[in-house]
Each structure stands twice: as structure tokens, then as C-alpha cells.
Amino acid sequence: MSERIYVFKRFERFWHWSQAALILFLLLTGFEVHGSYRLFGFERAVDYHTVAAWTLVGLWVFAIFWHFTTGEWRQYIPTFQKVDAMLQYYLFGIFKNAPHPFRPTTLRKHNPLQRLAYLFIMVIVGPMIWVSGWFYIFYDYWPVWGWDRFLSLEWVAFFHTLAAFLMLAFVIVHVYLTTTGHTPLSHLKAMITGWEEVD
Q1: What is the C-alpha separation between 141 and 148, in angstroms, rounded?
Q2: Full-prediction pTM beyond 0.85?
Q3: What are the boundaries of each domain within the chain?
Q4: Which terminus of the chain is more solvent-facing, meaning fewer CB atoms within 10 Å of its CB: N or C?
Q5: Residue 32 CB coordination number (10 Å)
Q6: Is 155 within 8 Å of 182 (Cβ atoms)?
Q7: What CATH topology corresponds to 3-198?
């Protein structure tokens, strides 16, 4: 038997989908800048990438403010409780129709593996993308600020691209895991309506 609970507030859904669209657009334009294909043309791709990056920065600043003023930041505090159960479920249990070891509530929306994944994104991938991206944006000012003495554009490009691939891997896994609910579209529906069906 299942029940419907209201898990995701309106702003969370707006933030989630806006962030997802911007990240996908940044990946699209970023890999074009990197020379992987030609879609917009190099100069336009650079311009679009820069505008999307600053837009995402603005969205993140607003989202951080919202999370701290509402107390929702607590949703992301990592925990190792039931991590082994979650790993067992995703590696084996899900293929045997085993019961899900985590039940989301309005106070605990993310399972332990999600919390650790979000921590990895916020502490490792995000800063790597933003710091290397800002070095890129302000490349013309390196000599003025004296950064050209210790920074290499090749290393900045390497870390920015590495972070992009890590973000792409996160997006792929994230999209796959949305199909592991009661039905393949139930988690997706929850991020649209805010209502989650739980056992």
C-alpha cells in the first residue's frame, strides 16, 4: 500500500529544473568550446557558456539563501546510516524487486547515498568547475594580477574539463536513478508536482 506525501516545495522544483537546464546547456556549449563538435560556432558558444555560467551562479546564490533561511540545508547533511543497505539495494535488490530501504519524508527527502553524492558535487565538483571557470573568464587579467607566474591555461582547462565530465557522469546516474521508483516515471512526476508516492 502506498500514500502520497508532499515532498518538494515549489521553489525546490523551480531550482531543480532551472539548474538542470543550465547545467545541460553548459555541458552542450562547453564541449563545443572544447572542440568536440560544432553547433553554435566557437565565439557564440563561448558567449552562451559565459552567460549561462553567471546565470547559474545567480541561481545558486539565491538557492543557498533559500536553503539557509528555510532550514532546508539540513536535507544535505551527510550520514552513513543505511549506506550499506542503499548500496545493496541499488546493486542487487532493485533487480529482485526488493523493498526500498529508504522512505522519503518532508524532513528527510534524500537517502544516504544521495546525500553523499550531493556532498561530492558541492564540495569537489562545484568548486572545481567554478574556480577553473573564473580563471578562464579572467584570463586576460592574469598578467595584471600576477597570476600568469603560477597559473597554466592547460591545467585550468584540464580541471575544468575533468569537472565537466564528473558533472556529466552525475547527470547520467541521476537520470537513471529517477527511473527506479514505483514506476519508471514516478520520481520524475514527483519533481514536477511535488508529491511523492511512498510505501
Answers
A1: 9
A2: yes
A3: 3-198
A4: N
A5: 20
A6: no
A7: Fumarate Reductase Cytochrome B subunit (1.20.950)
